[in-house]
Amino acid sequence: EKYRRRERYTPDELARELGLDPDWLRSPEGLALLSGDTAETTYAQAYSGHQFGQFNPVLGDGRALLLGELVDSDGRRRDLHLKGSGRTPFSRGGDGKAPLGPMLREHLMGEAMHALGIPTTRGLAVVSTGEEVLRQLGPEPGAILTRVAASHLRVGTFEFAATQRSLETRRELADYAIQRHWPDAASSENPPLELLRCVVHAQAQLIAQWMLVGFVHGVMNTDNMTISGETIDYGPCAFVDEFSLGAVFSSIDRGGRYAYGNQPGIALWNLSRFAETLLPVIDEEPN
Predict the structure, then answer these.
(1) Residues 186, 49, 248, 242: what is their CA dihedral angle, to the nearest 10 degrees?
(2) What 8-state DSSP symbol labels residue 45?
(3) What count of Cα atoms within 13 Å lies in the side-chain half-sphere of residue 2?
(4) What is the signed CA dihedral for 212, 213, 217, 218, rounded to 10 degrees?
(5) CA quadruple 24, 28, 33, 38: dihedral positive or negative?
(6) pTM recorded for the entire structure
(7) In the chain, N or C: fewer CB atoms in 10 Å?
(8) Are 221 and 49 in contact (CB under 8 A)?
(9) How far apart are CA 281 and CA 171, in angstroms?
(10) DSSP 96
(11) Is residue 15's pLDDT more than 50?
(12) Among 149, 151, 154, which residue's Cα sits nearest to residue 49?
């Protein structure tokens, strides 16, 4: 409601929300932060994911690094994430860099969703690196997006814990997700079960809003579904120009798995995978 009531948007609003001075961000010191040059320790997060229905046990941030967290003016904890900053342990042979065009698109799409009142990650800044990155059509100018998110916990994060880590780690991850995003669930009779309900409810609301504005995410893999209920990862996405349930915006989605009209069903499918990771935490008795 706070965002729906806003009469106008200024580009520096997000910086001020995070307690950052927009003028400082434009200084050499600020630009060094936004390009990762001043970060002593960064983290590339590991996760699993069902990609077009096929499970990959080890994925991760191949071209993104977590700078750290800030507490904003409303007391909310937010992640600062650099996208396109170079190779990580999960790059799988890629250069870990990003062209300017896709980073600008992610920034613009995030701001459009924010202006529409739809939960989303947002771009704090896009910084040109001065490098050229090689892509299919030749060299393109490089850039880094500073992404702000409630967190980068994904359904794929829980899938990674379920396949790579102990049951105790799964419990710790569920407890952390509750503490970070759904604190009221902690006082319920079965907190992990309430966590599942909260995420299902948040995602149902999110996908309903996508459908209302004609938004097609394009790649609804489980590693692109957040526990917070925010839209994340604006790759091959679009707003439809005309109503078409079969609208697809990913060149590799030849079967239309992630078409506009399939998004509610895919959300349910992804949430079912999330539920599977929580079953032993909800109740140790399988039945």
Answers:
(1) 10
(2) P
(3) 3
(4) 100
(5) negative
(6) 0.93
(7) C
(8) yes
(9) 6
(10) -
(11) yes
(12) 154
* Mean pLDDT, residues 185-204 taken together: 98
User: Which pair of tokens denotes residue 12?
Assistant: 């520096």
**Amino acid identity for residue 181 in this structure:** H
Distance between CA atoms of residues 214 and 206, nearest Å: 12
3-class secondary-structure state, position 249: coil
Tokens of 63: 């071209």
* Calpha distance 63→86 (Å, rounded): 6
Task: Indicate if the pLDDT at residue 172 is higher than 90.
Answer: yes
Residues in the chain: 287
pLDDT at 3: 47
77-83 and 64-71 strand pairing: antiparallel
* Cα distance between residue 33 and residue 12, in whole Å: 16
What stretch of H or E contains 274? helix 263-282
Cα–Cα distance between 227 and 280 in angstroms, integer? 18
CB of 254 closer than 8 Å to CB of 183: no
Nearest-CA neighbor of 82 among 65, 98, 95? 65
Span 125-140, pLDDT tens digits: 999 999 999 998 899 9
Angle between helices 167-181 and 263-282 (to 10 degrees): 120
Q: Residue 43 is encoded by which pair of tokens?
A: 């983290």
The DSSP element (H or E) to which 25 belongs, if any, is helix 22-25
Kindly list the catalytic residues: 223
Spatial separation of the C-alpha atoms in residues 91 and 34, rounded to whole Å: 21
